[in-house]
Amino acid sequence: MLPPSRSRFRLSLIVATVAGLLATTAGAAGAAPAQQPPPQVCALPIISLACQPDTVVLDGTRLTKNRVGLLLGDRTLRTSLTDLLKQADAALTKGPWTVVDKERVPPSGDKHDYLSLAPYWWPSQPATADNPQGCPYVQRDGVLNPETTAVPDKAERLTAFSSIYQLSLAWFYTRKPEYAQRAALDLRTWFLDAATKMNPNLDFAQGIPCKNDGRGIGIIEFAYTFTQVLDAARILDAGAPGWSKTDATAMKGWSADFLTWLRTSKNGTDEAAETNNHGSFYDMLSAGIALYAGDKALTKQIVTGAEKTRLDHQIAADGSQPEESTRTRSFHYHTFNLVALTRLAQIGRHVGVDLWAYRTPEGGSLFKAVDHLLPAATGGASLWPLPDLNFLQYAALDSVHAAADAGDAQAKAALAHIPAPPGGDLYPVRPAAEQLDDISVTG
């Protein structure tokens, strides 16, 4: 039990918080929008909708309401935040990471270019002096070639981007400056500082030795994790110490250049033409960057277009996903594609498009796609009718959360019966789907 002085302080803070929220909400109904408070005000532990982040996938209003819920002692939020802070605290002493920190030089000769190897391709011949790489390479779907870990960019990207996201959220909820300052350092090191920054392209992602330097499908390595970085940057924009307007402008410029590359390069256009989860993630990534860069018209165009090009093709009447059903890790890929589509739906709501409400000509929908997973998500592998090399029940959790948020009663009822992933259920404090069974970790 809190001492009386602490209780009075907490009560007064809650009263001030609620009053601030009411005042801000009332002001929003007026003719002129409220001006953003000075950054130093938003860095304080007070709560106001005027200080909420203008996020890309996440809902800034919900994040702000979460802070109120934490002050009021919401147990679910507090448990989730405790788990998030464990990861953020670990991230305080890691990194920063950079693409120039690798021995292997990309085909361009520039270590500032991101480099990775195709994860499921293996040498078919013994290595010899005449054929040191064991060419030609052949595909073994779903089986990770450990050779790919010798190039660190992919693994460091995953750690860097998730750390940036966790640190920014930790700052948002606690207002402890060390979290924001570390996130800002990690962002500048990977994207902005001349000596260490990555060039805004993925020309050499998922190359296959003896076959090609890079492929469009390598873009998926940035897919949802880069949109987490965009949300992190927007959170830091809301008055975080250590992150300046110059940083924000530079990050927006880097992202705009990357979007141009995505929409004009051969790798980008190849990925846009993919019809499975790769196409879904391409749309989600492009829409998220467009929104971050300020092009709401393009964002809306991408999300609306996905109704026909993605949902019509990918979701059957019963909610199954034919494109993902033939994979050796079919449950993983069903949940993986829904990470892209549910995040795209969240981006859509920022521009007035409700992807959850869309019904395909066959009667499929995002709701049906999530509901199709529920028997296995709640009951285990025996209730999944397709092969999966490494079935992980919790892989569906975030997409089920997203469907429940969107109004799916079956999904809401199922949540209590789905096990949490290692590290806990973080969705309550970072409410957007993640790939909980990342192949680079669990493969």
TrEMBL record:
Pfam families: Alginate_lyase (PF05426). Keywords: Lyase, Signal. GO terms for cellular component: periplasmic space. GO terms for molecular function: lyase activity. The keyword rRNA-binding does not apply. Residues 100-379 form the Alginate lyase domain. InterPro entries: Alginate_lyase_dom (IPR008397), Chondroitin_lyas (IPR008929). Residues 1-28 form the signal peptide. This is Alginate lyase family protein.
